[in-house]
């Protein structure tokens, strides 16, 4: 990747709907060269997709929670079973295996505390291998969906 690739990624993070010709103009490259760069970045999986950012509150999903999850066993099979079940749970937006005092950090979004109680009681504690959970309800989202800090990205 070179400086033009980094600039493409920076622009796309701010405006994923920009046309190739507008992108080319901002880069001072031809539309053909810009299109080739976009195809390469997509082929190389640097660009993994495009999508709309939605307002969760307007869609009835106003409660964001983070949940620490500890498993009863820390084996490869237990991790695989848990991960497979998490991928099949639409309320779970993100799930990260972490180092530290628990095994996974789950980010979930639901309508309200009652909906979270149902998710916890009917889904989360029933996921394979779950021994313990700790929940943190978000009171305010200070920063959300931030772009990657490309200033420190590899160019060249």
TrEMBL record:
GO terms for cellular component: cytosol. Keywords: Activator, DNA-binding, Transcription, Transcription regulation. InterPro entries: ArsR-like_HTH (IPR011991), AsnC-type_HTH_dom (IPR000485), Dimeric_a/b-barrel (IPR011008), Tscrpt_reg_AsnC-like (IPR019888), Tscrpt_reg_AsnC/Lrp_C (IPR019887), WH-like_DNA-bd_sf (IPR036388), WH_DNA-bd_sf (IPR036390). SUPFAM superfamilies: Dimeric alpha+beta barrel, Winged helix' DNA-binding domain. GO terms for molecular function: sequence-specific DNA binding. Residues 1-62 form the HTH asnC-type domain. GO terms for biological process: regulation of DNA-templated transcription; response to amino acid. Gene3D superfamilies: 3.30.70.920, Winged helix-like DNA-binding domain superfamily/Winged helix DNA-binding domain. Pfam families: AsnC_trans_reg (PF01037), HTH_24 (PF13412). This is Winged helix-turn-helix transcriptional regulator. It comes from Lichenibacterium minor.
